[in-house]
UniProtKB/TrEMBL annotation:
It is found in: Cytoplasm. Gene3D superfamilies: 3.40.50.1970, Dehydroquinate synthase-like - alpha domain. This is 3-dehydroquinate synthase. PANTHER family: 3-DEHYDROQUINATE SYNTHASE (PTHR43622), 3-DEHYDROQUINATE SYNTHASE, CHLOROPLASTIC (PTHR43622:SF7).
């Protein structure tokens, strides 16, 4: 099967390409304007970075390794990248390639967005999570001690290459974690995703499987359909944060030992119960959250922090408004809405379900 082109319209249109063995497409996405290319990559992906570099013979390519995972998304790491671009004489017509998981594409996009107020960036995500979430949509950012992604910018890429071959060596638990964001997309917008997961043996969802490719393409299309009309999250794009208010609190409380996709699964269980407590969501759909996330091997409970600790962390989430908490909830599959300022009793009841102490 050839590559699939998913087009992102809007003021700065670009394509997300899904398929196998796509590294040779890098020059076509970068174009002939850049002279220099900074290839920002997770340090653990040195061999892959050199393979990508070999496809970029027409450019003056500089490899910029950064820490793996969330450790890359800090102000000192971003500053080191800026200093490197300055030493190398990067101009506004030059470009960045971000090669790695979601943390690397978040960082690489942020560096590109802020260098000379914005240079071209191409994302080559190497994890399932990055393919269906971080690399698409133009969100970039770094973390602070107060929370995740609190410093950032919107900066759309020139293109995204989702090379499914790169998932061949991805550890199984990382692939499963990425399914957290995929299933989330099913709940907020595409019930076919949920049906696929329900009728597929989870062990057959592998990097080279047709079902994973369909899940990836469907999840990306959900994100495209939302962000094309709301790049800067002033309206409907907020629905993509389903489960994320609690997820980000869990990530912070666990010092990022809980993977993002795992935290999204747990956070989605929390918010489904919150919607049930508010009388918005029916029992069957609320219960379906636990069944589906657990089916693929994702956690559906977490008790690593107190209610008070998580409540405080949620208060500094980007979706909060003043002292009021806001949650994206469902009134049914594909029917998201915002629940503002739920009662403390509802929050505690949902927390008890999330921790498995509801009885």
């Amino acid at each position: 099967m050839g590559a699939t082109m998913l087009h992102v319209g809007g003021a700065s249109p670009y394509d997300v390409v899904v398929g196998h063995d796509l590294l040779d497409r890098l020059p076509g996405v970068l174009g002939d304007q850049p002279e220099r290319v900074a290839l920002i990559h997770a340090a653990t992906l040195g061999e892959l970075a050199h393979r990508a570099r070999s496809q970029l013979g027409a450019y003056d390519v500089h490899l910029l390794p950064v820490p793996d995972g969330e450790a890359a998304k800090t102000a000192p790491v971003a500053a080191d990248c800026w200093e490197s671009l300055g030493r190398l004489g990067f101009t506004r017509s030059d470009a960045v390639v971000a090669l790695g998981g979601g943390a690397t594409t978040d960082l690489g996009g942020f560096v590109a967005a802020t260098w000379l107020r914005g240079v071209r960036v191409v994302h080559v995500p190497t994890s399932l999570l990055a393919m269906v979430d971080a690399a698409v949509g133009g969100k970039t950012g770094i973390d602070t001690g107060s929370g995740k992604n609190l410093v950032g910018s919107f900066h759309e890429p020139a293109g995204v290459l989702c090379d499914l071959t790169l998932l061949d060596t991805l550890p199984r638990d990382e692939l499963v974690a990425g399914l957290g964001e995929v299933i989330k997309c099913g709940f907020i917008a595409d019930p076919v995703i949920l049906d696929l997961v329900e009728r597929t043996d989870p062990d057959t969802i592998t990097a080279d499987s047709d079902v994973l490719r369909e899940l990836v393409e469907r999840a990306i299309q959900v994100k495209i359909d939302v962000v094309v009309d709301d790049l800067k999250e002033s309206g409907r794009r907020e629905i993509l944060n389903y489960g994320h208010t609690m997820a980000h609190a869990i990530e912070r409380a666990s010092d990022y030992q809980v993977r993002h996709g795992e935290a999204v699964a747990i956070g989605s269980v929390f918010v489904a119960e919150l919607a049930r407590q508010a009388g918005v969501l029916d029992d069957a759909t609320a219960d379906r959250h636990r069944t589906l996330f657990a089916r693929v091997g994702l956690p559906i409970r977490w008790y690593g922090a107190s209610f008070e600790e998580l409540r405080h962390a949620m208060a500094v989430d980007k979706k909060a408004r003043g002292s009021r908490l806001r949650f994206v909830v469902l009134s049914g599959v594909g029917a998201p809405q915002v629940l503002a300022d739920p009662s403390e009793d509802m929050l505690r009841a949902a927390y008890r379900v999330m921790t498995g102490s509801e009885s």
